[in-house]
Amino acid sequence: MKKESTGGYSINNLGFQFDLQDQPISAIDIDQDQDIDIVYGKYLLLNDSVFVRMDLFPYENVISMDWGDFDGDHDLDAALLAQDSIGNYITRIFRNYGNLNFTPLEVKIQAFNKNGFIRWLDYNNDGLLDLATSGAAGVPGLFIYVNQGNAFLRKRFFRVTWLLTLVIMIMTVILISFLVTWSMSQTETGITLSLSLRQILLI
Ligand SMILES: [Ca+2]
Ligand SMILES: [Ca+2]
Ligand SMILES: [Ca+2]
Q1: Over the stretch 146-155, which tens digit does the pLDDT of each residue have?
Q2: Distances (CA, A) of 178 to 63, 106, 171
Q3: How far is ligand 1, taken at its centre, from the CA of residue 36, in Å?
Q4: Residues ≥6 apart with Cβ < 8 Å to 143
């Protein structure tokens, strides 16, 4: 491990080289030994006096990753957006069974065809972590998978296009109201002019 010092920080080069330089980084105590470990993309750097690198997830490119105890068993589970070796985009929950055993859940989760983002959050404040993902499956969207307990997740989703449609509808209503008002004012002006002309002619 190389060390250098700069501006109050000391830099430790862990000495690892990776194929990709833009992978998400997490710092968690994955083996619960009180030492913080590092997850970089698909790799685990296990902190065991020195960092030991090992494969953790079966993907080449991890796009977004988050950790949360969605099943309440006091260990952190992973949610990933990733690409496999042939470029397929995958959204997956990996349940932590301990001893570095992470197993993908058989939960149908939206697969995207572009980059996205993933986060655990308690969407409905019921104490169970839900999963929020953004991505594009035809059109960009935000999806929330509501944790029903017993490791069962149900999908709900909000499409960006719905909001766009609502904005277009509101703007259309405003435009029609404006046109009707303008048309009525034109009609009233025409009547006024007509009456004025008639009055003039009568005079
Ligand atoms: Ca550890
Ligand atoms: Ca857990
Ligand atoms: Ca919840």
Answers
A1: 998 875 565 5
A2: 47, 53, 10
A3: 5
A4: 110, 132, 133, 134, 135, 155, 156, 157, 158
> Token digits for 103?
């197993």
Instruction: Report the phi/psi class of residue 163: left, alpha or beta, with left for phi > 0 and alpha for psi in -120 to 50.
Output: alpha
**Helix (H), strand (E), coil (C) string for the chain:** CEEEEECCEEEEECCCCCCCCCCCEEEECCCCCCCCEEEECCEEEEEECEEEEEECCCCCEEEEEEEECCCCCCCCEEEEEEECCCCCEEEEEEEECCCCCEEECCCCCCCCCCCCEEEEECCCCCCCCEEEEEEEECEEEEEEEEECCCCCEEEEEEEHHHHHHHHHHHHHHHHHHHHHHHHHHHHHHHHHHHHHHHHHHHC
Which pLDDT band, with edges at 50, 70 and 90, does 197 fall under? very low
How many angstroms separate the Cα of 133 from the Cα of each of 120, 155, 180?
9, 11, 43
Question: What's the rounded mean pLDDT across residues 169-176?
Answer: 86
Which position has the higher pLDDT, 52 or 187?
52
Give the number of the ligand closest to the Cα of residue 67. 2
- Tell me, in angstroms, the distance from the centre of ligand 2 to residue 128's CA: 11
Residues within 5 Å of ion ligand 1, judged at the Cβ atom:
29, 31, 33, 35, 37
Which pairing describes strands 25-28 and 37-40: parallel, antiparallel, or unpaired?
Answer: antiparallel
Using CA atoms, how far apart are residues 23 and 57, in angstroms rounded to an integer?
A: 13
